[in-house]
Amino acid sequence: MAGAVEARLAELGLTLPDVVPPLASYQPAVQSGVYVHTSGQLPMVDGKLAVTGKVGAEVTPDEAKELARTCALNALAAVKSVAGDLDRIARVVKVVGFVASASDFTGQPAVINGASELLGAVLGDKGVHARSAVGVAVLPLDAPVEVEVQVELAGA
What we know:
The chain is of the alpha+beta class. 30% of the residues lie in helices and 26% in strands. The strands form 2 sheets. It has a 5-stranded mixed beta sheet, with helices on one face. Strands 3-4 form a two-stranded antiparallel ribbon. A hairpin with a 2-residue loop joins strand 3 (44-45) and strand 4 (48-49). Helix 2 (61-83) crosses helix 3 (108-123). The longest helix has 23 residues, at 61-83. The protein is globular.
C-alpha cells in the first residue's frame, strides 16, 4: 500500500518509477546510519534518455529544468529502494545538481530548481534542503542534467 508521500506524488500526476539500474560499478543508493545517499541520477525514463546535449546549446533551460525534475523523481525511487518507504524521510538534507553546460551558460541554479521544486511539492517542509548547482563540460551518456540527493530517515 502506498504511503502519504506516494499519495502526494499521485496527486501531482506523478508515478514513482522503477529504480534506474547502475551504468557502472556502484549502487543507486546506500544507507549510512540515518542517511541515504543516492548516486547521481540521470533523467532516465523507461531505460533511456529522452534528451541529450548541453544546456544553452542543444537543450533549452526550460527543458533542462524538467529533466532535473525527472532526476529528482528517480532519486526518490532510489531512496525508496533502500529505505523501504518514502514516508520514513525526515528531511532532504542536500541536493547536488550537475548541468552539462554550453561554455556561456550560467543558469545552472534555475535548472536545478526543477529538482528542488519537485522535492518541495512532494515532501513539503521536509523537502527544504541545502544545495549546489554546478556547471560541467559533459555528463554520462551526454545527459544534460544529473542530480544526487541525501536524505535523513526517521525511525532508522
